[in-house]
Write a structure and sequence with these properties.
It contains 1 helix and 2 strands; from the N terminus they run E-H-E. By secondary structure, it is α+β, with helices and mostly antiparallel strands. It has one domain. A two-stranded parallel ribbon has the order 1-2. Strand 1, helix 1 and strand 2 form a beta-alpha-beta unit. The protein starts with a strand and ends with a strand.
Length: about 50
């Protein structure tokens, strides 16, 4: 079991806060977060999210 903490994800689900204006590394960032999360976080892990 692992414990993770993550904050300030800059999620722009409604598209009003486009982050790609800050450079190419932000393109597709929400999908990158999702894919890395699925690779790293297991069902028995605990994740603390600071919204």
């Amino acid at each position: 079991m692992s414990i993770y903490a993550i904050a300030d994800l800059h999620l722009s689900i409604d598209g009003k806060k486009a982050m790609d204006v800050f450079g190419g590394q932000w393109e597709g960032y929400m999908e990158k977060i999702k894919e890395n999360w699925k690779k790293q976080v297991q069902e028995e892990d605990t994740v603390v999210i600071r919204w």
